[in-house]
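Schema walk-through. Below, the input block comes first and the output block second. Nothing else is stored per chain. Lengths vary across the set, and this one has 275 residues.
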Amino acid sequence: MLPAYNAEATLSRTVAELDREIIDEVVLVDDASGDETVPLARKLGLKPICHDINKGYGGNQKTCYRSALDLGADVIVMVHPDYQYSPLLVPAMASMIAYGEYDMVLGSRILAQDTVARGMPRYKFFSNRVLTFVENIALSQKLSEYHTGLRAFSNTLLGSLPIERNSDDFIFDNQIIAQAIVAGAMIGEVSCPTRYAADSSSINLRRSIRYGLGVLHTCADYRLRRHGLRRVDYLDFEAGKVAALRAMPDAARIPAQRAAGHPATRAQDVGAGGT
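--- output ---
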């Protein structure tokens, strides 16, 4: 799935590296871009879904995920179309979910590579390391990073999360990981070579600080909810739900998803996207 915003400069390169023999559908949602993203997407053979007004990075993803679930996708993959993350990893990530090993897979910029040497600004690398350290403690995980724009989800997991309650801003990315942990998801990672080019998107320092504070707030929300000290709307749902659904045979799991208002899984359908 592609939650795109002003991606004209890099969209063609991203789409060219998507393996269409493996990927059934590419869902692009344009968040009221001011450039030629939409005409270019159509020229590339896509059928973009267009927001009339900018709904934010998180709001864009919500439309993408709803659309992917409506298509009956078994596996949903998000790749940012700014060509910062490698689209070539989509089949590998999808297979990690399709074979039942994981419910969510993150493409890590930190695993097995020198991210700074590949162009990540030092202040971004430092903040990434500090925030990831805090999050691993707060969320009781051992992930190498939480801030990647390359992510894959199973239908069972994504359909179980109340993503509409999440922020419409960048902190959506952290909230959905916290939700996945509450749901009992198995989360895997794969090393992703990362590019930092002049035409790749990046949030400015002010928004980076705002995002960092949001990450700390998400950590506090999770810990307080876990210990019964605060009700948190976006985390207030049945804990361990996806683990229970995963354990069911299809004959029982699919009716359970329907009863919860989520579409049943059909043929594998992988989307790619970014903002």
